[in-house]
Each structure stands twice: as C-alpha cells, then as structure tokens.
Amino acid sequence: MTAKDIIEIGKRMYDKNYIVAHDGNISVLADNIVYITPTNISKGFMTEDQIVEMTLDGQVLNSAIPSSEYKMHLAVYNNNKNVHAVVHSHPLYATTFACMGKPLKSDILAEAMYQLGDIPIAKYEVPGSEEAAESVIPYCNDYNGILLEKHGLITWGFNLLDAYYKTEIAEFLAKITYNIGG
Ligand SMILES: [Zn+2]
C-alpha cells in the first residue's frame, strides 16, 4: 500500500507542476523502513518495483536506486520521531521565494496560519549533499516545512497525505504572498 500511495502522490505532484522531469522526492516511514522514490525517474510515471526500501541509516534493502536527496529525508526522520512522511518538490511560487532567499510568513492567510505555520528558509547547500541534509535539522521539530535556498520546498507530516497537504498549502501561501507583493 505504501508504494501505491507514493506513486499516487507522485502523479498528483507531477500533474500540478510541482515537479518537472526527474525532480522531487517522496518518502514514507513505516515499521522502521523508509520507502522513497527512485533517482532518474519521473515521479509522474513510477511503478511499484521502482520504489526504494531503506533503513533509517541509509542501507538500501531492495534493488532500486534511491533519490540522491535521500539523506535529507533520513535527517528529518532521525530528528523528529513524529514524522512519517516527507515530500520535496519545486513548485513555482514556493521555489520563487526560495530563489529570492525569502521565507514565507503564515500570518497573512488563515489556512496557512492554522494548518501550516511559517516556512523559514535554510541557506543554500548543494542538493544531495550531507550539508543539505544537515541544513534541515534545525527546523524539523518547530516547523512543518522549509524552503531550501535557490532550490525548492520540503514539508513533512504524520502521514503521506499530511506531508503532501503541507506542500499544497505552502505553495498556495507562496502564491498569495506573491500576489499581494510580499
Ligand atoms: Zn530538489
């Protein structure tokens, strides 16, 4: 079921242009196994056998190759035990703010205020690097997601839908912030 859910969310994210080409990654933690999207495959067109299974210390358990950004996902799971899903994408407006180096303030929009909270920004690190993974750690207990400078958005939640909805709300907040000239 977990792999099917990841495939479904991947399709939705691809259809909404939150990710293009091979961008983005999605993971779920269930019974101490991390299920994560593969590298070099569009998240709009995944099959079950392509979903990677790995341990919380990064050991791959099947024959699939994980996203190069898997360390960022593991960093969240290993530092916040309430998290069971992580979604990383490059939605247009949230990524625009990431490229401007500007965090998103939630207090302009009721939905965002109550269901998301502020989205701070972590300073630029090379995607996939150890440093990029570490840059998420200071935020993963106090926020529901962050912008990655010059890169994109990452959100997390108690299950996959929760983490995905945080991405939707963050992108909506970014759109509104942009429209009001914030
Ligand atoms: Zn990325």
Structure description:
The chain is of the alpha+beta class and 182 residues long. It has a single domain (2-179), classed as Class II aldolase/adducin N-terminal domain (L-fuculose-1-phosphate Aldolase, 3-Layer(aba) Sandwich). Helix content is 36%, strand content 16%. Strands 3-2-1-4-7-6-5 form a seven-stranded mixed beta sheet, sandwiched between helices. Helix 2 runs parallel beside helix 5 (130-136) and helix 3 (92-100) packs across helix 6 (160-179). The radius of gyration is 15 Å and the shape is globular. The model has no long low-confidence stretch (mean pLDDT 97). The structure holds zinc ion (ZN). Residues 23, 69, 88, 90, 127, 151-152 line the site of zinc ion (ZN).
Task: Sum this structure up briefly.
The chain is 36% helix and 16% strand.
- Overall outline: globular
Helix % is: 25-40%
Indicate the mean pLDDT. Answer: 97
From the coordinates shown, what is the CATH architecture?
Answer: 3-Layer(aba) Sandwich
Flag low-confidence runs.
Answer: none
| Helix/strand order, N-terminal first | HEEEHEHHEHEEH
| Main sheet attributes: strand count, strand direction, barrel closure | 7 strands, mixed
CATH class category: Alpha Beta
CATH topology title? L-fuculose-1-phosphate Aldolase
Which small compounds were modeled alongside the protein? zinc ion
Helix-and-strand structural type? alpha+beta
Count of DSSP-assigned helices: 6
- Count of the separate structural domains: 1
Strand arrangement across the biggest beta sheet: 3-2-1-4-7-6-5
Gap between N and C termini: 41 Å
CATH H level, superfamily name: Class II aldolase/adducin N-terminal domain
What is the strand tally?
7
- Share of residues in strands: 15-25%
* Rg, alpha carbons: 15 Å
